[in-house]
Amino acid sequence: MHPQALPNESDERPGLAGHASRTEAFDTRARVQRFSHLLVGVTNLDRSEAWYRDVVGLDLLGRDLTAEPRAHSVLRMNTGQLVILAENPSFDPIPRCQIHHAFMLTPNQYRRAAERLRQLGHEIGDTHDGHRAVGEYSIDVADPDGHRYQLQTYGPEAFQVMPGEGVVDCGPAERYAVGDVRAFKTGNFFLVRHKDGFLAISKWCTHMNGMTVYQPHYWQFWCPFHDATYDRRGMPQPYPGNRAGGPLRVHPIVFSDDGRVLVNTDEIAEDRTPMALAAGVR
Ligand code: FES
User: Fold this and answer.
1) Is residue 269 scored above 90 in pLDDT?
2) Ligand 1 within 6 A of CB of 232
3) Is the CB–ligand 1 distance for residue 134 below 6 Å?
4) pLDDT in tens, 18-38
5) Does pLDDT of 97 surpass 60?
6) Ligand 1 center–CA 222 separation, angstroms
7) 243 Cβ inside 6 Å of ligand 1
8) Which of 125, 178, 180, 245 could bridge across to 1 with cysteines, CB 3.0–4.6 Å?
9) What pLDDT, on a 0 to 100 scale, did the predictor assign at position 89?
10) Nearest C-alpha to atom 2 of ligand 1 is from which residue?
11) All domains of the chain, ordered by start, with CATH?
């Protein structure tokens, strides 16, 4: 597990739900806007009460305040909702990766939570290190009985255009056959040779900034982070639930006097028409 970076500062509530669903595709009827209380079974009330009070920071209201027949503690979140810890000594510890509760925070709330957990001695790391889109952050915390809570946020950097790396010389145009797709690491783009010319397509997914890959068997670009797919012109594949946030961006192309393909990765082109060499495509 690697130490995790923090999101850029922002008080904006992310428009995406857990696992980065698209806002418009996310069914608000299924979304829990507010709940009244969460009942959590614990094996040792003293131990868990201290954890929810001191680590999570909930206000302890008192014990045995409700009709719950088991010994219990009532704690309050800063949103007014209650967490009720009910003691059940025979409760089996929860295996990791079973049900968890996820909370979507603003980037600044997330930064504060990470700092607080660090100060309390928790290692803040990401078990998905290297498998998250740029700007996607998550912390897992487990209570003494293994109840797992996930804190999530999406920083503003998830939606920014990623910086380019200047003009990239892709070599002579004549070396590319129709149908070729070549991936360039410098500047993070694909050079695609269509019948009607070249397109330089950015690898950065437009859902968030995940890095897409080319799938030759499907003739498409795929983002492994939340499964967005795009055709060979960078257009989102037309099926419900595709998380693509729009077409993949394209970079402007010029040809040198001796017919080399030059891609300017610092700029985004408005015109998505493939660039043909001279008057006709060779
Ligand atoms: S970053 Fe989410 S699908 Fe690409």
Assistant:
1) yes
2) no
3) no
4) 666 654 544 554 455 667 899
5) no
6) 9
7) yes
8) 125
9) 85
10) 226
11) 2-159 (3.10.180.10), 167-264 (2.102.10.10)
